[in-house]
Amino acid sequence: MTEGPHAADLQRASPRLQQELRETLQRFRLGGPFYVLLWGLAGTASGLWTQARDTFLLLGLAFVLVNLLRFLVKGLPDDASERAVRQRLNWIWAVLLGNCALWAGAVSWLLLTTPNESARTVAAISSYAFATAFAHNFPMRLREAFIALGLLYLPTLGALIVNGSRFELVAVSCLYLLYVSLALYRSHAEYRQRLDLEDELRRQRDLFEQQSWRDGLTGIANRRRFSTVLTHRCRQARAEGTPLVMLLLDLDHFKAINDRYGHGIGDDCLIMFAQRLQAAFPDAGQALVARLGGEEFGVLVRQPLDVVMRRADAFRAAWSAVPLQLSGVGLNSSVSIGAVAFDPARHQTGEALYRAADVGLYRAKAAGRDVVVCADQPD
Ligand SMILES: Nc1nc2c(ncn2[C@@H]2O[C@H](COP(=O)(O)OP(=O)(O)OP(=O)(O)O)[C@@H](O)[C@H]2O)c(=O)[nH]1
């Protein structure tokens, strides 16, 4: 029962989630030193460096430790599982919010302890600057970013009110908080829009890639894909000494089918042929079935020649045995097949293997069609 969510957790994280982790991490590592630096400035300006050295140093040390924590979070996990990526993101946000809470506590203490005007100014400007930077840099998670904004901003604003600061100052601070909140909203919306756009681009790219190797009519691999795989498999067979056989299949008298029944039925015939050929030579890393153009198909199989010849002949016999029923029309069709086994001494390129298979096909047609002929077979 728990298998469903568990299995989903172990799935590979989506590109969108992976990107969120990359971007969050990149920005996460940048901010830390500024907290240490500005805390030092505020403490020195306030005189707390001398008046309450221990507390001041303790808080400074806490900023340094949080800063170090930022560099302990690693990038994309090796398995890139959804669960691992989410855990890493949660950890980053926990450190970020911890850092903001620390700033909130340190600044509240400073503002309530010291009457020094310049120290208060440094603390207030630092808080507002951190809040602004946060709104622009961490729009990935809106809820968490708002909590961070509150932690960075509100203690300073509260201290201004409690300390009886001038009305104009409090009003300007409130207006600026409004601006920062709106900026966070806008950055979040823009961030999501950008991710949506990138998702769409990825989808279009995948679709284009798929379409560029699929045959539009039958949906199986096209000539382009076949040529790429042919080159690759020839190289592999040469390097590993494994068997490789190419079949070239051409429907017999296909023009007559078109002429007699029309192109629509001709198309249906090609689609059915592709489906049956694919079923006869299922992929599973062994075979590649492609439409090379018109009524010509190619198959690559990593098996010995005698085995492939038997399979090809069984397919040929089954295809011509029973009339096809296409849109209520019954028609007879047969196929001629040329076969050739890869020989590293004779086939230097995929093109050479293709030409040899074509010789087999030519002989099959010349022999009266509806037959499988191996190119190396004597006439
Ligand atoms: N319906 C349909 N016909 C096509 C398609 N592509 C090519 N053809 C037709 O396939 C026929 C091929 O004819 P030919 O090359 O003369 O070969 P054939 O009639 O099969 O004769 P043999 O190969 O010698 O047995 C032509 O009529 C082409 O118009 C297609 O996508 N759909």
TrEMBL record:
Domain of life: Bacteria
Sorted UniProt keywords: Membrane, Transmembrane, Transmembrane helix
Domain named GGDEF: residues: 242-377
Gene3D superfamilies to which the protein is assigned, alphabetical: 3.30.70.270
Listed GO biological process terms: cell adhesion involved in single-species biofilm formation; negative regulation of bacterial-type flagellum-dependent cell motility
Keyword field contains Membrane: yes
GO molecular function: diguanylate cyclase activity
Transmembrane segments: 30-49, 55-73, 93-112, 118-138, 145-163, 169-185
Entry GO CC: plasma membrane
Catalytic activity: 2 GTP = 3',3'-c-di-GMP + 2 diphosphate
EC number: 2.7.7.65
One Pfam family per UniProt: GGDEF
CDD domains: GGDEF (cd01949)
PANTHER family in UniProt: DIGUANYLATE CYCLASE DGCM-RELATED (PTHR45138:SF9), REGULATORY COMPONENTS OF SENSORY TRANSDUCTION SYSTEM (PTHR45138)
Record-given protein name: diguanylate cyclase
Organism: Thermomonas hydrothermalis
